[in-house]
Design goal:
Number of helices: 13
Number of strands: 0
Strand content: under 5%
Distance between the termini: 9 Å
Oligomer: single chain
Largest sheet: none
Order of helices and strands: HHHHHHHHHHHHH
Shape: globular
Length: 316
């Protein structure tokens, strides 16, 4: 188990370094560079820009800038925001909780509903429910998240008035119920695609397990069908779903970016777009690295859980 963990940690570290090099290089090669917002100031002269470059260390070779940034990041200094002068960690910290709430609720919804649809579709194969779930999954995968979000706001907020059109809470109503009321619509929109993916994978995994010999043996022994399904089928079918949960984390992060923008949700996705528009590259790099760390950590945890649950992987 320990060699497996060390190997995965080593691979994750290499991937993290590659992501940081690519992200840092692309951001600094964008036309205008980190000082593009300063250049828009009518009173900013070429001499002023050169002085700013020297103060920020932007006149040094790009590899030196990267090594300096990476060294400071390893020591907890993620840089300072160009926009408001606050530390990057502080800026991200003000938005990370909102994103975690949105992602956590969406993940819970997609796993619960997707698992149920997948199991029922497999146990009622070629039924009306199975065909409806298949068509619904294809439609959900074909609809862009932003379009579904806008339609949801138009129907459920503007026309029916059931849910708020945006933001995380209403000023003056900062209660738990108020937060939940604002959370329902964006979490449902974000979980739509993931419900479709989860249900399809769960259906396939369940069908694969149903035809295994140990399931046939359990039925031949007279074990009740419900017990066979819950103990033998679902338990084994969920093993690949644990890995899928880790793989869906990057999709949740990218989907949260669109969903937070549509619903003006004050999370990391909206912060990322705002930082890009203001050329606030320290915040952008901080968000990029945090997303990469969360993605690699999610996949690592999923692999650990699978190896703990399935002794075949652990022994291998």
């Amino acid at each position: 188990m320990l060699p497996f963990l060390l190997n995965r940690l080593w691979q994750s570290l290499i991937l993290l370094i590659i992501v940081s090099i690519i992200g840092f290089t692309i951001l600094n090669l964008i036309p205008g560079g980190p000082l593009s917002q300063y250049a828009l100031d009518p009173g900013m002269t070429a001499a002023d820009l050169e002085r700013l470059k020297e103060q920020m260390g932007l006149n040094r070779p790009l590899p030196i800038q990267y090594l300096d940034w990476a060294w400071r990041m390893l020591h907890g200094d993620w840089g300072t925001s160009y926009r408001d002068g606050a530390p990057v960690t502080e800026v991200i910290g003000r938005h990370i909780f909102a994103t975690f709430i949105l992602m956590g609720s969406s993940m819970a919804i997609s796993i619960a509903i997707g698992t149920w649809i997948g199991i029922r579709g497999a146990t009622h194969r070629y039924s009306l429910f199975d065909y409806t779930a298949t068509v619904g999954a294809m439609v959900a995968l074909s609809i862009p998240t932003f379009w579904f979000g806008l339609v949801s706001i138009y129907i459920f907020s503007l026309k029916l008035g059931w849910f708020p059109a945006g933001n995380m809470y209403t000023i003056g109503d900062e209660t738990v119920l108020g937060y939940l009321h604002h959370l329902i619509l964006p979490s449902l929109v974000l979980s739509l695609v993931h419900v479709a993916v989860w249900s399809r994978y769960m259906r396939t995994a369940t069908l694969d397990v149903i035809h295994q010999d140990f399931v046939k043996t359990a039925r031949a022994k007279g074990v009740r069908e419900k017990r066979v399904l819950m103990k033998h089928v679902v338990g084994n079918a969920l093993l690949p779903m644990i890995t899928l949960a880790g793989m869906q984390l990057p999709q949740l992060l990218s989907g949260a970016l669109v969903t937070e923008t549509v619903f003006t949700w004050p999370g990391m996705g909206r912060l990322f777009l705002d930082s890009l528009s203001y050329s606030d590259y320290p915040v952008v790099m901080g968000l990029l690295m945090l997303s990469a760390i969360l993605t690699l950590l999610g996949n690592l945890i999923a692999d650990i859980v699978v190896s703990m649950v399935d002794p075949r992987i652990r022994l291998a």
